Amino acid sequence: MEINDKFYMKLAIDEAWKFQFLTYPNPAVACVVVKNGELLAIEAHKEAGHSHAEVNALKSAYLKKHPNDLLKTINDSFLIHEYLIKNHNNFFNDCTVYVTLEPCNHVGKTPACANLLKELKPKKVVIAHEDINKEASGGIQTLENENIDVSLGCMKKEAYDLLYPFIKWTTGTFVFYKMAQTLNGSVDGAISSNQAKAYVHSLRDKIDLMMIGGNTVRTDKPTLDARYIVGRAPNIMIYSKNKIFDKSIPLFHVPNREVIISDDLFKLLDYNFVMVEGTYTLLDVLKQRLDYIVLLVSPKIRNGLNALNELDIDFKIIHENYIGDEKIIYLKRKING
Q1: Catalytic positions, written as ranges
Q2: What is the pTM of this model?
Q3: What is the CATH code for 3-158?
Q4: Which residues contact 39 (CB under 8 A, 6 or more apart)?
């Protein structure tokens, strides 16, 4: 493995993390195209049903050198495949393609990326992690059958962390905890910027279920919809032993929404993709059941509720990136130290 392979694969992994969870039920995937040492494209899969990362990257790479080409006007994934196969003129023969996940080998809502790469014949394809989906796997074999140089396993551990939510929600339940806080850990009052709120609403638009604590509902009287992006309001589970609530609270009046009031955490297992919004109290209740914690950290220092003295959880930072001035920290709970 060349040292440059890790450099370019890290670019791909970092790009994919920008769309983590937003591609549900698909995995977050990104692709980088390099031609004779020149970086031509860094692109990701951005939403289920839309073009995969390889298609976006190959299109961008081609347009980098042919900026006025007709391809610029084509957005349908099948049509992009067709156009590139007919018009590539061996453009990609001296390219190396880096992709965080094995190119898909089946036709679904979008065509098979492995077939497109097979036809474009890049010099080399570097893959971080094999596809765990049996229906989509086989891309490596398709490429190797065309004598394309394939390298598997570059930054595989980092790619696994990126892929982990997809692995969990395709085989059972993936639960992540979202919490907004200041630099000193305060969770009181209005913390997040409008940009960060829009991101959270984008997450709400994708999830199968949102869980929130009963005390938060009673105190804040929230709506818990996705209005910042005009998205779909998620179904709600209110975690509470006391089942009595003021039904005039806005969240009970969102159309086409199911609201469950329960203290039975096994109900979470009825769903594939669950987001919990809350503070330290609910985090302590759920700490053994969480896959990831997502912290939105605002660059402010405020008085207010901080971590509970009795809270004792060790985390591992999986990834960090930014939305505007706010940092998003993705954490995984450490097990057995």
Answers
A1: 54
A2: 0.94
A3: 3.40.140.10
A4: 8, 11, 32, 33
DSSP string, 224-290: ---GGGT-PPPPEEEE-S-----TTSGGGG-TT--EEEE--GGGGGG-SEEEEE--HHHHHHHTTT-
Domain spans of the chain, in order of start: 3-158, 172-333
Instruction: Please give the CATH topology (third level) of the domain spanning 172-333.
Output: Dihydrofolate Reductase, subunit A (3.40.430)
Q: What separation in angstroms does the CA of 38 have from each of 7, 64, 121, 222, 288?
A: 13, 11, 18, 50, 46
DSSP 8-state assignment for residue 71? G
Query: CA-based angle 115:121:123, to the nearest 5?
Result: 135
Tokens of 176: 């992540």
pLDDT digits over 226-283, tens only?
A: 999 999 999 999 999 999 999 999 999 999 999 999 999 999 999 999 999 998 889 9
Q: Could you read off the pLDDT of 55-88 as tens digits, one per residue?
A: 999 999 999 999 999 999 999 999 999 999 999 9
